[in-house]
């Protein structure tokens, strides 16, 4: 077994997919059955979100327990399904039960790192101009 339960391993993080310029990022509000794979999530995108899973846009899903995240997108050759499981904590999710929420690339980066993307706190604020 590989991972924190089995002992030391390389400390190299695998980053989330980076959307290209103009790519829309959609977070599916509510809970998703995380047993769904490529076809199940693509069908959910079409039927419940009213979007085209083959458009190049990114679609993000979270399960009931909140520790598993899946991102589905079309890369021009096929569907890509990226997944991440947090060993501690939960991915921050909107309160809405259904629909979609649009994210920026910066919010996507925070979300995939387990950071609260809704109201990020600034580390400093300028006191005076000039």
Briefly summarize what is shown.
The protein has helices at residues 38-47, 105-112, and strands at 25-28, 58-62, 68-74, 79-85, 100-103. By secondary structure, the chain is an alpha+beta fold.
Describe, in plain words, how this protein is organized in 3D:
The structure is a single chain. The protein has helices spanning about 40-45, 105-110, and strands at about 25-30, 60, 70-75, 80-85, 100-105. It is an alpha+beta fold. A five-stranded mixed beta sheet has the order 4-3-2-1-5. It is globular, with a radius of gyration of 16 Å. The mean pLDDT is about 85.
- State the helical fraction: 10-25%
Q: Compute the separation of the termini in Å.
A: 56 Å
Output mean pLDDT.
86
Q: Based on CA inertia axes, which overall geometry fits?
A: globular
Biggest β-sheet: strands ordered side by side in the sheet: 4-3-2-1-5
Total of helices: 2
Secondary-structure element series: EHEEEEH
Identify the notable features of this structure and list them briefly.
130 residues; 2 helices
Annotate the secondary structure layout:
Elements lengths: L24 E4 L9 H10 L10 E5 L5 E7 L4 E7 L14 E4 L1 H8 L18
Parallel strand pairs: 1-2
Antiparallel strand pairs: 1-5, 2-3, 3-4
């Amino acid at each position: 077994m590989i991972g924190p339960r089995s002992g030391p391993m390389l400390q190299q993080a695998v980053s989330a997919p980076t959307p290209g310029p103009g790519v829309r990022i959609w977070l599916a509000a509510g809970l998703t059955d995380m047993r769904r794979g490529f076809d199940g999530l693509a069908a959910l995108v079409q039927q419940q979100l009213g979007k085209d899973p083959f458009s190049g846009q990114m679609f993000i899903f979270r399960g009931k327990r909140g520790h598993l995240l899946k991102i589905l997108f079309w890369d021009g050759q096929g569907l890509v399904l990226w997944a991440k499981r947090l060993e501690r904590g939960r991915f921050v999710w909107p309160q809405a039960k259904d629909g979609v929420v649009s994210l920026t690339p910066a919010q996507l980066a925070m979300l995939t790192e387990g950071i609260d993307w809704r109201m990020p706190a600034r580390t400093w604020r300028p006191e005076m101009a000039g």
